[in-house]
Amino acid sequence: MGDGGERRDQALQTRLIHDGVTRSQFGETCEALYLTQGFVYASAEEAEARFAGVSEGYVYSRYGNPTVAMFEQRMATLEGAEAARATASGMAAVTAAMLAALKAGDHVVASAALFGGCRYVVETFLPRFGVETTLVDGTDLAAFEAAVRPNTRVFFMESPTNPTLTLVDLEGVAKIRDAKAPGALVVVDNVFATPLWQKPLELGADIVIYSATKHIDGQGRCLGGVILSAEAWIKDNLDMILKQTGPALSPFNAWTLLKALETLPLRVRAQTETAAAVADALATHPNVTRVIYPGRDDHPQAEIARRQMKKGGTLVAFTVAGGKAGAFAAANALRLVKLSNNLGDAKSLLTHPATTTHKNLAQEAKDQLGIDDGLLRLSVGLEEADDLIADLTQALDQVKAATHLRSV
Ligand SMILES: *Cc1c(COP(=O)(O)O)cnc(C)c1O
Question: Which residue blocks in 284-384 are alpha helix, DSSP H?
Answer without folding.
Answer: 302-308, 323-333, 363-369
